[in-house]
């Protein structure tokens, strides 16, 4: 197994006391299995402070950190020396394509094709009643759940599969076999259609040009229209 030693100057901060003796970790105490969790936990308060004090948007996943700002020079001055300033308006990050000019995110085509292939296989196995490993179903659900940034309704179309997977894992274990119920097929069809359409998701909510609200009244219906520029137009009509 590889040896993951801490730097000597960092070992001081990893010291602890037990039965009047002082010890310090020289390497990761539990190996690399939980290192990503520890790193993300340690980085979260730092990210919060940066978001609060600097006008910089941060998107991070474990040790991958993306800083976004409209002014390239400002971003270069405010970030660390060993960070790289991305000059392009299109950034590949976490398997997705981030278009910074129009604030959209889209899953890379290769990743889409691989997931569509897995979804087709799952649909075929469900139709034929083929047994699959519980871990295999969990892996597919994790891949779909990973795309919630682009497909905001994703969690709604994972409930059926996730419930069956969780029930099988609880009753028989993760390494056992299961047969997915056909009630999951509509959800799989939704995912396949969405991935084929590949519509980029907006990272910034676009305000509506106009909103309309209606309400019942003793003499008919009332209507209120509010334009984006702030002008109000009120009108009403009768059902007669």
UniProtKB/TrEMBL annotation:
Q: Which SUPFAM superfamilies match?
A: DNA/RNA polymerases (SSF56672)
Q: Where is the Reverse transcriptase domain?
A: 14-97
Q: Which Pfam families match?
A: RVT_1
By what name is this protein known? Reverse transcriptase domain-containing protein
Q: Which InterPro entries match?
A: DNA/RNA_pol_sf (IPR043502), Hepadnavirus_pol/RT (IPR052055), Rev_trsase/Diguanyl_cyclase (IPR043128), RT_dom (IPR000477)
Q: Which domain of life is it from?
A: Eukaryota
Question: Which source organism?
Answer: Streblomastix strix
């Amino acid at each position: 197994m590889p040896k993951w030693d801490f730097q000597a100057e960092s070992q001081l901060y990893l010291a602890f006391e037990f039965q009047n003796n002082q010890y310090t970790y020289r390497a990761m105490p539990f190996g690399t299995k939980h290192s990503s969790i520890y790193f993300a936990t340690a980085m979260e308060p730092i990210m919060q402070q940066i978001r609060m004090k600097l006008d910089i948007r941060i998107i991070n996943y474990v040790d991958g950190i993306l800083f976004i700002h409209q002014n390239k020079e400002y971003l270069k001055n405010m970030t660390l020396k060993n960070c790289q300033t991305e000059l392009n308006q299109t950034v590949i990050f976490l398997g997705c394509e981030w278009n910074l000019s129009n604030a959209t995110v889209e899953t890379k085509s290769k990743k889409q094709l691989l997931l569509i292939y897995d979804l087709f296989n799952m649909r075929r196995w469900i139709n034929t009643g083929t047994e699959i490993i519980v871990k295999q179903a969990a892996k597919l659900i994790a891949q779909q759940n990973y795309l919630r940034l682009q497909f905001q309704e994703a969690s709604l179309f994972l409930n059926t599969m996730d419930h069956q997977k969780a029930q099988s894992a609880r009753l028989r274990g993760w390494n056992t076999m299961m047969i997915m119920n056909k009630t999951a097929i509509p959800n799989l069809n939704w995912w396949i259609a969405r991935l084929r359409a590949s519509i980029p998701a907006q990272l910034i909510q676009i305000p509506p040009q106009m909103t309309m609200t209606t309400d019942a009244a003793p003499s008919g219906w009332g209507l209120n229209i509010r334009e984006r520029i702030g002008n109000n137009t009120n009108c009403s009509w009768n059902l007669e």
